[in-house]
Amino acid sequence: MARTVVIGGGAAGIVAARTLHDAGHEVLLVEASDRLGGRAHSLPLASLFPREGGGPDLTPAFAGEHVDAGCGWLHSAQRNPWTEIADTSGFTVDRSDANWRTQWHDLGFPPEDQAASSTAYQDWNERALAALEGQDRPLSDFIALNDKWRSKIDAISGYANGANLKQVSLHDWAAYEEAATDDNWTVKEGYGTLVASHAVGLNIRLSTPVTRIDHSGRRLKLDTRAGTIEADHVIVCVPTTVLAKSHIVFDPPLPDKHAAAADLPLGLADKVFLHVDRPEWPTNAHLIGNPYSACTASHRLSPFGWPIVESFFGGDCAEMLDGGDAAQFAIDELVGLLGSDWRKRFMPLAATRWRHEPYIGGSYSHARIGRADQRAILAASVDGRIHFAGEACHPFDFSTAHGAYETGVTAARAVIGEAATIA
Prior knowledge:
- The chain is α/β, with parallel strands linked by helices.
- The chain has 2 domains: 154 residues, FAD/NAD(P)-binding domain, CATH 3.50.50.60; 173 residues, Polyamine Oxidase, Chain A, domain 2, CATH 3.90.660.
- It has a 5-stranded parallel β-sheet, covered by helices on one side.
- Helix 1 runs parallel beside helix 12 and helix 4 crosses helix 9.
- The radius of gyration is 22 Å and the shape is globular.
């Protein structure tokens, strides 16, 4: 019998299992899908290029390189534990500026408008933070409907929260904003690759979804397709979508957990990867497709000097393009800025659809209005035996892999403390 079973092989689950394993505890990590990493998922760049059609074979040039379908930025990087893990594990951390506030060659976005939009954002931010002492409100309350820059700020909310301004809690958003720092770095080999590498040597079962946790007796019993697993402790590290939809049933029921998960839904952020023939911009350049629209992509140009574009969609825009031709949308935006001659220079490589990813169903959590306190309810242990971890459980570093990391460590240490007490 495994003393502790960790359910979910994303960042939180991997870290929880690693912490227990390294402390000498017997631990089993079970993951519903056929891979580790969850929303931290790197794709081999070479595998994205078509191998037929008579064109040049570009795959050898990108052997060993990865792009991130999910989380790709070491946010708050200097205090992010994954940064140290990357450095000590031989990964390459790019500490250059993300350039999100820079429009390459000012294309489609004159300098005076860039300055005006920046001022509008700062003013909106200050109005929102000034209202923190009052009751919770949606972020949309702090900018007028007819404000010229409301659409751009809504687009930023889509990137940051996976949801529009009307859907996001002021109190929740402010907790993140007040803790976050502006150092956003990347991992050349892939953030997902880094997260998955942290699981080396652990006892893992893939393709093993847990459907029921019976905690009525002295031992916990977990129902899976492969049979029942018994444990003394369980750490549940699954996305809020899984709990909200009761894909895991608790016996006796835990209605507060399902309600908390429902109040912390996953927004949506998706990516499109394009190959570009003969890029003319420097490494890590940046373009906003249409700074006057709420539905636009943030285009990362030639990360690490590669001839690709990573186009990022969030919130309502990502929802609208879900199932549509997001790659064509991205190309149209880029051609609109760069000129019609560029159309033949772009080739779609891949596009994500996180809303339809089995056992995940979205990107990262935000709190509904008036429900920011549900993060603490979701994170609370049950009977000292069932613990919860994941980005949605963090009080201020939610929506990040480092938030998931810290909750995984916290849950594992709680198990270690309980085990020591019993012993």
